[in-house]
User: What shape does this take?
Amino acid sequence: MAVQKFDTPMLDQLESGPWPSFITGIKALRDNHPDAKINEMTNSLLGQLEHSYETRKGYWKGGTVSVYGYGGGIIPRFSEVGHAFVASKEFHTLRVQPPAGNHYSTGMLRQLADSWEKWGSGLVTFHGQTGNIMFIGADTENVQHFFDEINDYGWDLGGAGPCVRTAMSCVGAARCEMSCTNEQKAHRLLVNNFTDDVHRPALPYKFKFKISGCPNDCQNAIERSDFAVIGTWRDDMKVDQDEFKAYVSRKGRQHVVDNIISRCPTQALTLNDDDSLTVNNKDCVRCMHCLNVVPKALHPGDDKGVTILIGGKRTLKIGDLMGTVVVPFKKLETEEDWESIVELAEEIIDFWAENGLEHERCGEMIERIGLANFLEAIGIDPDPNMVDSPRQCSYVRMDGWDEAAIEWFEKKAEQA
Amino acid sequence: MAKQEMREPIESGCPDPFQYMHPVMRKNFGMWKYHEHPRPGVLLHVAYSGDKIWTVRVGTQRILDLFSLRELCDIGEKFADGYIHFTIRSNIEYMVTDEAKVEPLIKAVEDAGYVVGGTQNSVTMLSHTQGWLHCDIPATDASGVVKSMMDELIDEFRSTNMPNRVHITTSCCQINCGGQGDIAINIQHTKPPKINHDLVANVCERPSVVARCPVAAIRPAIVNGKPSLEVDEKKCICCGACFPPCPPMQINDAEFSKLAIWVGGNHSNARGKPTFHKLVAAGIPNNPPRWPEATAIVKRILAAYKEGARDWERINEWIERIGWPRFFEAVELPFTKYHIDNWRGARKSLNASTYIRF
Ligand code: HEM
Ligand code: SF4
Ligand code: SF4
Ligand code: SF4
Ligand code: SF4
Assistant: This one.
């Protein structure tokens, strides 16, 4: 039986144009799907969306919906205009954690699609801005059925609310020559150590891990995560001089000077008379630019590891913050290395859970108490790599200076 | 459901990706040597083993219906070994190990109505948030804004003619769950919340709402004999942060919730440290279903950038070189008192030098 279609004149206008349209897709579910429940739900959704377009207002409100045993992972949605759009009056989203790096077989996508067809609206997004697969539109009862079914074959909910959130990692080692770490391993070790904190929101606020395999930071980790892990290296960059010379002869010297040599932020590059390249590796800050321009000739070195930056977040409440360096370099090779990065995350989350105010992100807490106090709390020594510049204002009490200076030299002697 | 029927969850967390990874990517994990750009929308990666993999990047509507998802799977099975990778901007990537499969794959994708592109120096897919389709606090429909802009920018998605890559983002409230962008199109409210005092006592935890306000503009008050909240409208910056914890503090307004455009956000470390985007235009009408005013400004910015920037300059680097006065002139936008920052740390954004371009 055909549904009584809502008129959607504004959505019809949005549908026009060459880019694929989500409205067309929702209409296809309304008109062509064999299941009457899906026809009704999507018709009703289109009706409410059209109403939003006409009035320029949203009509969803939150509430409390969860699956048995968990406190988070579902975004409850109840319609404020459910009397008019009955079939989508409960339209909850399930946040489901994707495989690290967002790889799928089509077989698995089909299996997920089949389950969602049984219990949901038929709408899904790969992925939300936090990184979850978002299954959009199930009523309160079917949320549990859908979760039970996909949880049986390997899928778990992500976070929602004041908790550890779903993590993200770049494609990295799977298909990128810039990769300096095992992004997938870092991603899974970190977030899966905190499944309890993902599923049972009890932290001051959200906490996000993001992993990028190199400083190109394709995952926006520095800007968007509380705990950013960025691959890097500390020995010399590898230069294939024959490939580099071939590039110079193909593109010309002026191009090489304008696009590579003069664009290095620390003036670490010299083009030699024979068209080979000299890299001053002591000055190089691993910005990635020259490697990006000539990926065939320039490669990260062999002594790879990660830099860890803490405290990135978006606007609420004190304005946007970038994560800042807390661990300048860390090897991730042995099992102990891997364990210690998890321990560091535990240390940070524990301290923040105790000391963060309600609704205060980790970066905001650091801003409030100062980086030095934060470092002391998590047992990390100060390092000049953590600052753009030392203090500029003399208004500070420094009667602990002598001990701090001795400590520095003792640490240096230990390392030597 | 009765308690005894409830199933205990398996807390498996984030799944292992190796089981879903293209076998050639699995085999050469961590052993890739370099990449090339054979044509817009296609990447070629070469491994130290000599193995090669071609990636075809595809733009979609992001909010997928089951028919589209299965169609994309069909294409993946018929033309691309049965694997799909998603980028952070929700583009789909198909991988093939045989060069001869690239063109038929592209044809199949395009015949089905999807768009090949988004690599290298293109304007790739706008990343966007939820909007009216599903969020409980949006002032606009980010999905709709993106669809109408991508209709206009599709040729820039398909080609690689920009000086460097362009990442555009949108957010449908001032919490901004969309990220930093070379260009960001975000909601900017211009009037304080309208409070429905009858509902506050029932719905809102008043102390946590008071605590949420970034400028301490909210105080508890008794209105019409009931506990409610009041806003010091002189202090209020109209950010909407009080609305999620207290829906009776309605911030969204059909007329006064506007769009603002920001430029120069760049998350990469290449050539310079990562940067936040900066305000360039505001007061843009939130005009569904196609938001033509916002799109027109985005197109002006892109045209000026394409014309004026040098190779490899992202938008922030281009502006840093030419200076803000020339930028505002080139994009025909006014510079106003609202562009001068007054939030904490604002002095860092002032010019404490005689560096002036004439
Ligand atoms: C109350 C209602 C809210 C709703 C319904 C909501 C919804 C969402 C959704 C659906 C996503 C994408 C999620 C995913 O990938 O799974 C998201 C991401 C995000 N949200 Fe919210 N959000 C809300 C409140 C907030 C608040 C209060 C903040 C601010 C502090 C916030 C900041 C963000 C940020 C920054 C992201 C992007 C995160 C990233 O880059 O990883 N949201 N939100
Ligand atoms: S962040 Fe670096 S390693 Fe990861 S995909 Fe981007 S360029 Fe490659
Ligand atoms: S990676 Fe960046 S800093 Fe290092 S040499 Fe190349 S351009 Fe210079
Ligand atoms: S930007 Fe704001 S309104 Fe839009 S989805 Fe995110 S939280 Fe919701
Ligand atoms: S809109 Fe923002 S500034 Fe105004 S009262 Fe609400 S939280 Fe405070």
User: Anything to note?
Assistant: Residues 17-116 of chain B form a domain with the Alpha-Beta Plaits fold (CATH 3.30.70.3340). The CA atoms of residues 33 and 47 of chain B lie 5 Å apart. Residues B 192-193, 212-213, 215, 217-218, 231, 236-242, 251 surround iron/sulfur cluster (ligand 5) (CB under 6 Å).
